[in-house]
Amino acid sequence: MAAMTIDRMLDAARSRLRRIHPHELRAAVERGAIVVDIRPQAQRDREGTLPGALAIERNVLEWRCDPASSAKLSFAVDHDVEWIIVCSQGYTSSLAAAALQDLGLHRATDLVGGFEALQATGLRHVIADAPHFVRCADTLAMAS
């Protein structure tokens, strides 16, 4: 058996995903999808934030999204949540979405081209009014 390469791993991950294109993102959020930006804080500072997305760094993603985890987010209600993972260019996000599928989160997927594609198409703010984002912003405003 040939050794696994990152290219093969990426191809295998993507073969299981129904990846979302930037122009499909708003409709996905409108049907209830949760967008997660897994870029590290330093990268978000450098490249810009993604309004409407939850920022969950890659190293804790599975713990936050798994409905059986004691460290889960309130949005991780069951295995039917549609998680859309975003990284900078759409590579790491494919591997991360496949890892979520390995946990049984069968609707997990990622954004083709990542944050850079949203920026290039002028769609960076397309989900800024996402219901989960507005709810989180309201909660933060009340806590201040």
Outline the secondary-structure elements.
Elements: H1 6-15, H2 25-30, E1 34-37, H3 41-47, E2 54-55, H4 61-65, E3 83-86, H5 92-102, E4 109-110, H6 114-120, H7 131-143
Helix pairs in contact: 1-5
Explain briefly what this protein structure is.
The chain has about 140 residues and is an alpha/beta fold. It contains 7 helices and 4 strands, in the order ααβαβαβαβαα. Strand 1, helix 3 and strand 2 form a beta-alpha-beta unit.
Can you characterise this structure?
- This protein has 144 residues and is α/β, with parallel strands linked by helices.
- It has a single domain (10-143), classed as Rhodanese-like domain (Oxidized Rhodanese, domain 1), CATH 3.40.250.10.
- Helix content is 41%, strand content 8%.
- The protein contains 7 helices and 4 strands, in the order H-H-E-H-E-H-E-H-E-H-H.
- A 4-stranded parallel beta sheet has the order 2-1-3-4, with helices on one face.
- Helix 3 (41-47) links the parallel strand 1 (34-37) and strand 2 (54-55).
- Helix 1 crosses helix 5.
- The longest helix is centred in the C-terminal third of the chain and has 13 residues, at 131-143.
- The termini are far apart.
- Mean pLDDT is 90; it is low at 134-144.
